[in-house]
């Protein structure tokens, strides 16, 4: 449409990746910085690994907030 508002433009837009490979970012974070990012529901983990992660996270950051009951 002629005269329609245009999306904002930035000279930095060419540096924004189209899609981020999350697993690669996790690997890089671990290898380069010693930062581990893991979801407790990752299917690659067994029960003992999930429990260990939950225990460590609770020790470092406190208990997770309780989920509210759904009254849908």
Structure description:
The protein contains 2 helices and no strands. The protein starts with 21 loop residues before the first helix and ends in an 11-residue tail after the last helix. It has a domain at 21-61. The longest helix is centred in the C-terminal third of the chain and has 15 residues, at 47-61. It has helices at residues 22-33, 47-61. The mean pLDDT is 86. With 72 residues, it is an all-alpha fold.
Overall form: extended
Q: What share of the residues does DSSP label as strand, in percent?
A: under 5%
Distance between the termini: 43 Å
* Counted beta strands: 0
Radius of gyration: 20 Å
* Succession of helices and strands: HH
Number of helices: 2
Low-pLDDT ranges: none
Layout of strands and helices, then pairs:
Elements (H helix, E strand, L loop, with lengths): L21 H12 L13 H15 L11
Descriptive terms for the model:
mainly alpha; 2 helices; 72 residues; extended
């Amino acid at each position: 449409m002629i005269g329609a508002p245009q999306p904002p433009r930035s000279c930095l837009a060419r540096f924004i990746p189209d899609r981020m490979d999350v697993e690669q970012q996790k690997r890089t974070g671990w290898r380069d910085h010693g930062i581990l990012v893991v979801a407790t529901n990752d299917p690659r983990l067994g029960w003992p690994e999930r429990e260990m992660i939950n225990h460590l996270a609770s020790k470092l950051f406190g208990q997770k907030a309780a989920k509210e009951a759904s009254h849908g």
